[in-house]
Write a structure and sequence with these properties.
Structural class: alpha/beta
Distance between the termini: 31 Å
Strand content: 5-15%
Helix content: 25-40%
Radius of gyration: 18 Å
Number of strands: 11
Shape: globular
CATH class: Alpha Beta
Number of helices: 10
Largest sheet: 5 strands, parallel
Number of domains: 1
Length: 304
């Protein structure tokens, strides 16, 4: 990981949030024209895995919902978000940052009891995990303790930083720190596939399943780009469905506005509701909807 990312996170807390968003917005729009043929759709990502025979029950494509919970504000909205999904017949995973805020054991238990999943999103929401191999190993010890305590088997790195080899020392069944295409992330190299894949090593290190997100992140679309509707989500979903891939979302409760009085980094929760309702209306009975842990189990049994 380049040192300037570490420097950015050291000084970030001294930069007013409005200025942070303004700078990131300008950077994004400066880059977006360069990647018009790679985002939101990278056509190379549609290649089928070797030996692919399709999704269970003959479904056309797969649909997986995940949430990274970056702040206390997001944490306190998790149950409210889960209730929206529950009413529409969906379930999702919630990935919590261990030390940046208080992760309520009651919230975790309630989510799991209602058929949702919990995972770990790092100890702190910054770049420190990948500062060095020794730092990763140090943090991994505690992350593994939390995974065991929470009975969790999934991980997603803060800010989508990643080193797939280092991640093998975590006690996980799957990681979700990659994406098919997202040139606006600090570590912008995508994996160019809309399917899960097995990460394994020739030296005997244990492997795990990698679950890339394949729909653009809500923060990019609605906070930075300030998109007025869900058109980009729908366009990408239709392309994934047409190629029989996995539509995996990462929606942050931190940025969802439930009250109608949104701040500068929120968008109406109705956008997310509209997308889920679109899924039901257009693709009813055509998608295989599972939790990340269930997708990882399916892919492991299929490829190992």
């Amino acid at each position: 990981m380049k040192n300037y990312y570490h420097i950015y996170y050291l000084i970030k807390r001294f930069i007013p949030r409005q200025m942070q968003l303004s700078l990131r917005r300008k950077l994004l729009f400066r880059k977006i024209g360069k990647y018009v043929n790679e985002w939101p759709i990278n056509y190379r990502a549609s290649s089928l895995p070797e030996g692919w025979t399709g999704w269970p029950d003959g479904k056309q494509f797969a649909f997986v919902l995940t949430h990274d919970v970056d702040t206390q504000r997001g944490h306190d909205r998790c149950i409210q978000l889960a209730e929206i999904e529950e009413k529409l017949g969906f379930r999702s995973s919630f990935n919590f940052v261990v030390d940046d805020y208080t992760v309520s054991s009651e919230v975790r238990r309630e989510l799991v009891s209602r058929g949702f999943e919990v995972g770990v999103h790092g100890l702190t929401h910054n770049a420190s995990l990948y500062r060095s191999r020794s730092e990763f190993q140090k943090q991994a010890e505690r992350i593994n303790q939390i995974l065991k305590e929470w009975n969790a088997i999934g991980f997603r790195s803060p800010c989508m930083y990643r080193n797939l080899e280092w991640l093998s020392i975590l006690d996980i069944a799957y990681d979700a720190s990659t994406f098919d295409t997202d040139p606006f992330e600090p570590q912008p190299d995508g994996v160019e596939t809309i399917f899960p894949f097995l990460v394994q090593f020739a030296n005997g290190q244990k492997g795990y399943i990698e679950l890339p997100y394949t729909l653009p992140q809500d923060f990019t679309l609605f906070v930075l780009m300030q998109e007025p509707d869900i058109g980009i989500w729908v366009k990408k979903l239709d392309w994934i469905a047409g190629h029989g891939g996995m539509a995996l979302m990462n929606v942050h409760p931190d940025y969802l506005n439930f009250s109608g009085h949104k701040n500068l980094e929120e968008y109406p929760v109705s956008y997310y509701q509209d997308f889920l309702e679109h899924m039901l209306q257009k693709y009813q009975n055509k998608y295989w909807h599972v939790l990340p842990k269930e997708m990882a189990y399916f892919w492991k049994t299929k490829t190992c």
